Amino acid sequence: MDGQKTLQKSQIPCRKPQNMEDLHPMPNYNADFEVVRSTREVPPAHYTFKVDSFSLLSNILSKSEVEKYESDMFEAGGYKWKLSLYPSGRKERNANGYVSLYLAIAEKDTLPLGWEVNVKFNIFVYDQLRDNYLTFQDGNSGMVRFHGMKTEHGFARLLSLENFNNASNGYLVDDSCIFGAEIFVIKSTGNGECVSVVKAGDENFHSWKLEKFSALNTERCWSEEFTSAGQKWMLEVYPKGYSNQSSGYLSLGIILADSESLLPERIYAEYRLCIRDQIRGQHVEITDASWFSTSSQCWAYEKFLSLSDLHDPSRGFLVNDTLIVEGQIKLSTAVKRFS
């Protein structure tokens, strides 16, 4: 049986990102977690923290027996944050001889009981000689979880003081340095969809009787809507053919009646179309499959049945000037949205 349809599929290759080569020396491990670093020219999106007199600040903190300096609060992703700088390294993390830098969530007391914030964040050190940023990120998954028992994450061994103090590396120039942070909060909207494959039983088909068929004076006609495999469908008949190329034939198609509800999805359906032989049971039918969408609502078969066979009384397609057309959705995909 001839059918007019074309389905094309394309496949897009997926490539894994390649590791960038490091430009400056850095320790191979971190006291908190694995570290991934890279360089970029774009500055931090959310906060920049500049220290004009790094050595003096370090001395002041040492004399006052204060281990860290906290930045002012800043907002990102709907939460308040601070950067905690340890100029001589965070001792409890065994980071003596390193610069330590941490991201801490602020105003914890204002958060609801049992709060939890999942984020991806980057820490930056500005290379003043090359005008780019050395970035640091958790290398395990790229995402960390802040909660009541863990209110900060960061890098105990961000850079060794030997490398940091070496002016040729560009991090500390004229006793000045610049740090930065980007925080992307992962918030679930609750929106999504569930796609499933729905099968219909063999007894689940729609029968359409076109009475007084010879008197039909219309280019095409449609059946009433019927529901099968979770979707609404219609059958479509062109009594004298769909086009000039199919004159002399009856054309038959199937329509997805509620395609507007699919935006922007599409569904796949396996179906059977049939014109019944009401005398001998030698029906003309086709079983096929197509993708349906708002732009492909109907698949039609232009030369489904020749008009000569249709009007041949011995073939049994027209009995008492009544044509019986059947449509059946055997299987289709279904999309259920939730929020």
Automatic annotation (TrEMBL):
<feature type="compositionally biased region" description="Polar residues">
    <location>
        <begin position="1"/>
        <end position="11"/>
    </location>
</feature>
<protein>
    <recommendedName>
        <fullName>MATH domain-containing protein</fullName>
    </recommendedName>
</protein>
<dbReference type="InterPro" id="IPR002083">
    <property type="entry name" value="MATH/TRAF_dom"/>
</dbReference>
<feature type="domain" description="MATH">
    <location>
        <begin position="44"/>
        <end position="183"/>
    </location>
</feature>
<dbReference type="Pfam" id="PF22486">
    <property type="entry name" value="MATH_2"/>
</dbReference>
<feature type="region of interest" description="Disordered">
    <location>
        <begin position="1"/>
        <end position="23"/>
    </location>
</feature>
<feature type="domain" description="MATH">
    <location>
        <begin position="203"/>
        <end position="329"/>
    </location>
</feature>
<dbReference type="InterPro" id="IPR008974">
    <property type="entry name" value="TRAF-like"/>
</dbReference>
